[in-house]
Amino acid sequence: MVWWKRTWNGIGGLQRRVGGRSVTDEDEGIGAERQRPSRLTDAAVALLLAVADAAALAGVALLMFIVGMSHSGPPGGTPAKSEDVSPLQLAVVWFVPCALAVSCYVHARLRMPITSVVQGLFCVIGTTLAIGQTNMLLSFT
Fold first, then answer.
1. Closest CA to 45 of 98, 106, 92
2. Cross-strand partners of 17
3. Is the pTM above the cut of 0.85?
4. Fewer Cβ atoms within 10 A, N terminus or C terminus of the chain?
């Protein structure tokens, strides 16, 4: 625990040398934009985005189910038809995980750790669903 506290204080206390004197971010006037939002704001944004992400991923899962059922043939038979996978279909499949990854990065840069972790978890779930949907689309060819 002592190591962590010493490391954290060392990272927070980094200073640069400018013109022979040490200057911190607060001295340059950019400290206001570097301060992170309150924990309450972070938790509220995380909750709001978690609900939105859950709805988006549920929609993706429903879409996977509908597309998979529409391409399945009669029981014991082969799929109804064979078609190529267009790059547009793959772009649609991978849009949600990419958006979640960007959101995770942005919230980490905004110093909102709760929201960043929630977005990261949904990014992992979205990537897993995208891999499954890509495999499903490629199996129809």
1. 106
2. 22
3. no
4. N
